Amino acid sequence: MRKPGSRRSRQRRLGDALAAVLALLASAAADAQCEELRPFKIVGDAIPAALTETAGDATRGRAIILDRRLGACLLCHTGPFPEEKFQGTLAPDLTGAGSRWSEGELRLRLVDPTRLNPQTTMPAYYRVEGLTRVAQAWRGKPVLTAEQIEDVVAFLSSLRD
Amino acid sequence: MNFLLRPLVALATTIALAAAPDERRSGYDIAGPEIRAMQDDDTANPGNLWVLQGETLWGKPTGAADRSCADCHGDAQMTMKGVAARYPAFDAVLARPLDLEQRINQCRTEHQKAEPLAWESEDLLAVTAFVARQSRGLPITVSASLELRPFLALGKQLFEQREGQLNLSCSQCHDDNWGKQLAGNLIPQGHPTGYPIYRLQWQSLGSLQRRLRNCMTGLRAEPFEYGAPQAIALEFYLMERARGMPMDAPAVRP
After folding, report:
1. Which value does ipTM take for this structure?
2. In chain A, which residue's Cα lies nearest the Cα of B162?
3. Residues of chain B with pLDDT under 50
4. Can you give the pLDDT at residue B101?
């Protein structure tokens, strides 16, 4: 039996440990596959053109914001949603969002807020690239569809001070 | 710098460090009075049922070797004192760290010649809770040895890496936003002081591995398999991050 404390065995153990860690890091590399998203164009800090031909529906947009399986926005945000008792305190109140931002600005903030603030905690709702370890069920899919993004934009724009 | 000033500055720094309040808060520290009271009272803490069951298993001869934990380890109050507070620990033969559950299972397979207990099985939770209970109040003191450094680095990297469809890192919640409300849940700093925990939401005892998988699933990330080297590295990083904090297993959490 080799002495656990000897320098040789320590070095070997360290070498084994490093090799194991490198293998793990390689397996954690970003997921490659992804789905085609509708093309969009960023102009300044906005996506001026809608992602869909048909206009968004504000009533549906409100429901998406509240739905924990869809927008789940109130995990982080507060807003004018008296029926929801549990609202988050990680992000600004959504009240008046339509007065602060144009439709195009809201659209970019939903599609991929990391374009504006790389450190943000807000998820990108319409992006599939550059993500890591996405669970099988969600891989290659954006959090919201293009139609749902437009619904949420329509609702947020209606939130005026 | 002036040679007379230097020792003064050093002294001032030492005092400043000593005076700096520990910003770390365990899940217990931020819990409401009901949960704290439940955890503190052995007759009210549901985790204690597992501790008692673990105590029974500790004395029960098992496996082809027909040996009990007690046959080799004697009185757990003596021999298991502080053990949970320094796990995960490095296993020289496997050249990687093992967490407490894995170490207990190693005794089952190697010393008792028995089948390993399944993750989250009542028996594994019970024995782990019983062993972890012997570290109550003792500071977390995982090893800082050279062999473990790559795993610590991996754990830190995984903690800080954004992941899942929601593209968040552990650190963004547990370092940057602790104390805030994630809808109905207060975000804790994520210290592993109390595992296995009785979680009211689970209505059961659960391991740290299960807790990590919960957070990963919430991010819509593919959780690590139970006991996967990455998951153990994360556990190890969490323990290092909580170094010096007192153990409080079995804790009660919302």
Report:
1. 0.85
2. A132
3. 1-5, 7-19
4. 98
